[in-house]
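user: Here is a favour to ask of a fellow structure person. I have my own habits and do not want them to colour yours. Could you put it straight underneath, so I can go through it closely?

assistant:
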Amino acid sequence: MFDPSVFAQTRLDRLESDADGYARTELAGLSAEAGLDEETRRLQILQSFRLVDTEPEPAFDDIVTLASMICGTPIALVSLVTDDRQWFKARVGMEPNETPRDQSFCAHAIRNPSRIMEVPDASQDARFMHNPLVVGAPGIRFYAGAPLLSPSGAALGTVCVIDRVARALTPAMEQGLQALARQAGELLALRRANSDLESLNQSVMEMQVELEQYQVQLENENATLAEASPVDPVSGLNNQRTFEQQLEDELNRVERLKTPMALMLADIDHLRLYASDFGGAAGNDALRRVAKVMKSQARGYDTLACLRSRRFAVLLPGADKVLLAAVAERFRHAVAALPPIGRALTVSIGATTAQPIDAPLDVMERARTELSRASALGGNQVA
């Protein structure tokens, strides 16, 4: 005979025993690397999809219809958990379209993204027995929620089923509910891909205008450069080949004239994580935004480049240590002041001055060492 209280305790024990293991996932590691707690990151990713409070969509409505049919429950939901509520993108058998987060079963389910959370009898479960949704309408007894994951693995909500009587899912029902949650995740991935495509189209049009302008400039300045573009196609700055030639030329000038020169290397902090959370097009857009800011802060005769590693390089002719420190801080503050899109952008900067006896590799190695130190200090630093 089915004993819901024993079944619930067994399930709860399993969840508690696995909690430490799931806390060590790659997702948590990336968040720690960026100095974000898991919930902050999850909410940022949820917001980036712009899905909460949108109109109903047939694709999500089909998911809850199938969930209700497969699991034989009167209620099925696609629930998204925000900071203060759970909002239903799609629902069957539930009148309100949201509830407070502190009443949400799904807020518990997303804590363990790898499996279904099942509550056989909520009236016997210490976590939920006093919940208004249990003691009042709709009188929840049974709940099962499969976490709805973003492409980067963040649990944004659930595909869940609810009944007013105590019960349990069969293995076939569990498989069906998990499959529907994966399909909901695929819908999120499709939304992200469509958004990336729109961003890419816009970027292509903007870059087309910039390339046409730059082509005119190239033809006026040096017709021979038309055969091989010196420009990085994403950032619009000089590419690595052009930068290496400029570095060699500047070091020759330092040796010949005994004039000062400085080099800065800059990385966007946690760019890989940013692109993972918000899409590849967003990562390229971050490069373009930072490049534009750095260009606005540079002097007319400074050389700016975006290297193959997606690292920025700036050559500053005539700059001594005092000027270099001031310019580097100006660059850092200008990037940090950019309006956040999904998440604020910051840079780590490594800077060094050149000596008359320096070879290009010597200067680059010193700047790389300082950049590594700035990153190790937590980012958004100048070393």
Q: What stands out?
A: The radius of gyration is 27 Å. DSSP finds twelve helices and ten strands in the chain.
